[in-house]
Amino acid sequence: MRLRPLVGATTALAALALAGCGSGAAGPGGASPAADDGTLTVVASTNVYGSIAQAVGGDTVTVESLIDDPAADPHSYESTPADAATVAGGDVVVFNGGGYDEFMPQLLENAGGEPAVIDVAALSGLVPADAGEPHDEGEAHSEEEHGAFNEHFWYSLPTMQALAQRLAQDLGAADAANAATYTANAEAFSASIDGLIERTEAVGASVPGGRVAVTEPVPGYLVETAGLIDATPPEFAEAVEEDTDPPAAVVAQTLALFDPTSLDPLRALILNAQTETPTTGQVRAAADAAGVPVVEVTETLPAGTDYLGWMTAQVESLASALNPV
C-alpha cells in the first residue's frame, strides 16, 4: 500500500478555520443536527462517495466532496483549512479509509462535534484482521500473510450497495421525516448496482479465462467480479502504486505479457489514467504495438457524470475491449 503524505494543514490553522464552525450537539443516532434550513450536509473525501451520497440523499441533502478534480490523485492529496471547516459542518462524513484518504481521520479529530462517520474500509469487510500488523525483520511473508488488501473499495460493487444502505440509515437517524425517502433511494441505487454486477459478470463470461494486465491494483475488484485473470506480476502493480520503479526484471516480465506470439494472449490492458509514469508508458506502448486494447480507469469521477454512469461506462469500455467489433 502506498505511503500517504501527512495532512498539509497544521493543527493550528485547522483550529482557526474551525472557530465558529462546529457542528453542534449530536442528534439522533449520534449524528449532528441538520442545518438551520433543515438540510443535512454530507461531507465526502472524494466525489465518488459524494455522488453516492447524493443518490441516496436526493434533494434534501447538501453534499460537499473535498476532492472533485477529475485530474487529482487522492493518494497524494493534502488537506487545507477550508477542508477542515467543511468537515466540521458535516452531519454525515464518508471516507474511504484503509490508508487511502489518510487526511480524513485527522480532519475528523480536529473538527470536534459528533457527526455520523462512515469508514468504507471498515464497512466493506474486505480488510483482513491482521492488515498492517508488524512482523519479524528479515522474515519472508506473502501478501496474504501480511494482511495486504486492495483499498480501492468503490470498485467493489457490493460494498457500494452496503454504503448506500448505511447512508440511508444515518441520514434517516438525523432526519426522521425523510427516512423513508432515503431508504427508497438506497434501494433504487442498489437495484441499479445489481444490474451492473450482472453486466460485469456477463462481460467476463464472454471470454472464459480471459487474461488482462493492470498498471495498478485500482480496478482489482471489478476484474474479480468479471471473473477475469489478472496476469500482471504483483510486484509491478504494487511498485507503481507505491510511486516506485519496479525492478528491471519485473518490467521485462510485464512487457513479455504482450508478446503477440503468445498462445494465451492478453485481452486488455487496464490502465489508471490518473497515475501514468514512464514505466506505465512503456507498458501502454507494448500493448499498442501488440494490438491489445487499452481500457482507462480513474479514481475520481470525470466531470459531468455520477457514480452509476461512470462505472457503467467503464464496464462497457471493458466489454468493447474484450469483444472488439
User: Which radius of gyration do the C-alpha atoms yield?
Assistant: 21 Å
Percentage of helical residues? 40-55%
Estimate the mean pLDDT confidence: 86
Name the CATH architecture of the largest domain: 3-Layer(aba) Sandwich
* CATH topology-level name of the largest domain: Rossmann fold
Global shape:
globular
How are the strands ordered across the major sheet? Answer: 2-1-3-4
User: CATH class of the largest domain, please?
Assistant: Alpha Beta
Number-wise, the strands total 8
Keywords:
325 residues; alpha/beta; Rossmann fold; 2 domains; four-stranded parallel sheet; 13 helices; 44% helix; 11% strand
Give an overview of the whole structure:
The chain is an alpha/beta fold and 325 residues long. The chain has 2 domains: 11-123 and 147-195, Nitrogenase molybdenum iron protein domain (Rossmann fold, 3-Layer(aba) Sandwich); 206-322, Nitrogenase molybdenum iron protein domain (Rossmann fold, 3-Layer(aba) Sandwich). It is built from 13 helices and 8 strands. The strands form 2 sheets. A 4-stranded parallel β-sheet has the order 2-1-3-4, sandwiched between helices. A 4-stranded parallel β-sheet has the order 6-5-7-8, sandwiched between helices. InterPro entries: Bact_metal-bind_prot9 (IPR050492), ZnuA-like (IPR006127).
Give a brief description:
By secondary structure, the chain is α/β, with parallel strands linked by helices. The chain has 13 helices and 8 strands.
